[in-house]
Amino acid sequence: MIVETVTIGTELLLGQIVNTNATRIGEKLADAGFDHYHQTVVGDNLERMVDAITRAVGRAGAVIVTGGIGPTKDDVTRQALQAVAGVEMRYSEAYESELRRRWEARGRVMPESNLRQAEYPEGAEMIPNPKGSAPGLRLGIGDAWVFALPGVPAEMLPMMDAEVIPFLQDMSGDPAAVVVSRLIRSWGLSESRVGELLGDLFDQYDNPTVAFLASSGEIKVRLTAKAVDVETAASLVAPVEAEVRLRLGSHVFGSDDETIERVIEGLLEAEGWTIATAESATGGLIAARLTSVPGASAWFRGSVVAYHEDVKRSLLAVPGDVIEAEGIVSEATAVAMAQGAAKALGADVGVAVTGSAGPEPQEREVGTMIVAVHTPEGTRARTMLLPGDRERVRTYTTTAALQLTRLALQGSWWKGDSQSLWGVGPGAGR
Amino acid sequence: MIVETVTIGTELLLGQIVNTNATRIGEKLADAGFDHYHQTVVGDNLERMVDAITRAVGRAGAVIVTGGIGPTKDDVTRQALQAVAGVEMRYSEAYESELRRRWEARGRVMPESNLRQAEYPEGAEMIPNPKGSAPGLRLGIGDAWVFALPGVPAEMLPMMDAEVIPFLQDMSGDPAAVVVSRLIRSWGLSESRVGELLGDLFDQYDNPTVAFLASSGEIKVRLTAKAVDVETAASLVAPVEAEVRLRLGSHVFGSDDETIERVIEGLLEAEGWTIATAESATGGLIAARLTSVPGASAWFRGSVVAYHEDVKRSLLAVPGDVIEAEGIVSEATAVAMAQGAAKALGADVGVAVTGSAGPEPQEREVGTMIVAVHTPEGTRARTMLLPGDRERVRTYTTTAALQLTRLALQGSWWKGDSQSLWGVGPGAGR
């Protein structure tokens, strides 16, 4: 089944917010095996909404409209559906009671504007919205099902999962509707190098499809197979996955939801080790990534963000003569910081970053970033030279530090050039 | 002039990457005073690209197409423009030489596939791409100007600024083309409360327009005026800005690019103070936000991410009897952490966070987060109860900690309820 999305919101067109709704819906449609060929964004303008929805209804088996169903008068998605379907507007007394009950339960007086949310085009079913007051709508128009969902992601996404996707799966009746998707995660090769290594697989396979994308230095390869049942789809994915893993070798660090943080957690738990970080230029980003893992307190001890030289000396016990002889942005200082973090924070493993993130150079050229990793088996450091502005340098260094930690825990170390950290070669287009 | 965007990329439809290009282009068009009514996303499919561009050309004075101009064979934007314009494809020997020169300068052999980038539809001008190898294109089709730009943001955005926007400004010849925009930043009120306070301004004004948006707990109000010159536009904005500031009162903390980090920097510099943080549940996010400011080393000393209780005791010198009597998730512990951070890191101001971010509760209900701020003038703490998952709780707490730091530095303190941190009231739609 072809599904199309129409995202409503003047703030999207003005660039005030990023259209993550379209992204997340696209991801859910892909995972469920639906085809998604068009996304349209229009503002809170009835005429353009009617035009966009009419066009989508003519092309797709289902249309998902987000936004414009709130209580304010610029919310006109209900009116747009009514116009496209050519039906009357109805009013749900039952939903009015429900709305009044909710507000009373909070001890608050309901603004009367909320009653707009009890209106619906004739023939539409209301879709429950457990996280908010605006119900969704489902309405058959011509040969298409049209869904109207809230624009607030925390309300819309659960409604997609609970109502829209299951309904469409029932309706589509596609015997090959089972989809198995595999994400293979790698680091340390440029996007163009991955393209060279895997290019023939793109042409050779269409089930599973092979796609790859780069983000913050990681390259992810996604294999997606469709089949009549899970076993068949999985058996289509397996040989291609094996081939991808063979070609990318030790650059592969995980699959599916095994993020680098999760992989590090697994490696630490296998050894019974704890970890601590000492950060300068990354300013806490490595600690923030590690502590994004629920349950990190079992293996993450803490971090010292040593921005000022005094802090490196006092809390991390970096010897003054090392700093004087080698400088702050040096492998010797990074090594002392990693060892100092492990000691000061009572951890087995210490990860340290020092560098010159810009915009003004500190001792060395802007983009010079050094990572050191100390484990009970030894300490190593690595100097990188990264292009880009301060924020990109910090982000890529954070990923590099986590990846070098993984390699150190696995007893290996990365030998590529800095360019491969970027995932971008000289001729990269998109 | 009406400008429309067509973003090309199957990875956008599959939800593999977020369409930030459309957002950034929308922002630039709004800032330049162009109307932007439609955004369309289609995959790397010639037929659908031709259809989308044809439709856009029929509605707009200019169409900006991003993506699909790279060297690989799924890059077919040139072919789409050729088809829409109904012209022949030409080949630039000059650009071929330029491409060969660039690759030779890097000492690398150019894959012949790169020569696709020397092709152009008859009548098109090439637009220089200083950051990459795929040149942009500008072609008049019917009454519209069509631009093809790379999909890589780091290449596309400078081309928008240097070539596309200035060209369109010259072409539009709109006497009211000067736009003055003002962003007023606030924190501590819910989105629905801001809506109540400012609702009549939305209806009353259309020049400047009044819009607001919530992100990570901050509410931003944007005023945008169009006029024949900057002075006139600014004079339209000024009285509305004064009214907004009057109504939102001390919740306003800055305007335009004065982020909360910048505001804190200014307050610290005015006092000649330095700052340090002690973070538990936020795991380094506060330090990372502060160090995102270039030049933060002048006033940011460092941070102790004290995840384990031992670290709170050892590096931050939180007294064991405080932890035993009050617990780790307590205002007393937060106060001791803030004071300990200032002392251990040699700073005048200490900011501390402790709490129960989930998914498992730690001592207190999940979402219980405590912020303490110590300054030379005193120490205060505040307990909040935040809904949402671990990542949202961490993000909102980080913003709250920065805002409470600002209030403490200004000698005031926040008295609202936790709900206002979310920017979301019970009836919020979008």
In short:
2 copies of one chain form a homodimer. The first copy, chain A, is an alpha/beta fold. Chain A has 15 helices and 17 strands.
| Alpha-beta content class of chain A | alpha/beta
Strand order of the largest sheet of chain A: 2-1-3-8-7-6
Helix content of chain A: 40-55%
Shape of chain A: elongated
Helical run tally of chain A: 15
Fraction of residues in β-strands of chain A? 15-25%
Number of strands of chain A: 17
pLDDT < 50 runs, ≥5 residues of chain A: 423-430
CA radius of gyration of chain A is 27 Å
| Gap from first CA to last CA of chain A | 27 Å
Task: Name the quaternary structure.
Answer: homodimer
Mean pLDDT of chain A: 90
Tell me the major beta sheet of chain A: 6 strands, mixed
Overall description:
The structure is a homodimer of 430-residue chains. Chain A has 15 helices and 17 strands. Chain A has 430 residues and is of the alpha/beta class. In chain A, the strands form four sheets. A six-stranded mixed beta sheet of chain A has the order 2-1-3-8-7-6, sandwiched between helices. Chain A has a five-stranded mixed beta sheet with strand order 14-13-15-16-17, sandwiched between helices. In chain A, strands 10-11-9-12 form a four-stranded antiparallel beta sheet. The longest helix of chain A has 20 residues, at 153-172. Residues 423-430 of chain A have low confidence and may be disordered.
Write the layout of secondary structure elements.
2 copies of one chain form a homodimer.
Chain A: E1 3-8, H1 10-13, H2 20-31, E2 38-42, H3 46-59, E3 62-66, H4 77-85, E4 89-91, H5 93-105, E5 119-121, E6 125-127, E7 136-141, E8 144-149, H6 153-172, E9 178-187, H7 191-204, E10 209-215, E11 218-227, H8 230-248, E12 252-255, H9 260-271, E13 275-279, H10 285-290, E14 300-306, H11 309-314, H12 320-326, H13 331-344, E15 349-355, E16 368-375, E17 378-385, H14 390-409, H15 419-422
Parallel strand pairs in A: 1-2, 1-3, 3-8, 13-14, 13-15
Antiparallel strand pairs in A: 4-5, 6-7, 7-8, 9-11, 9-12, 10-11, 15-16, 16-17
Helix pairs in contact in A: 2-6, 3-4, 7-8, 9-14
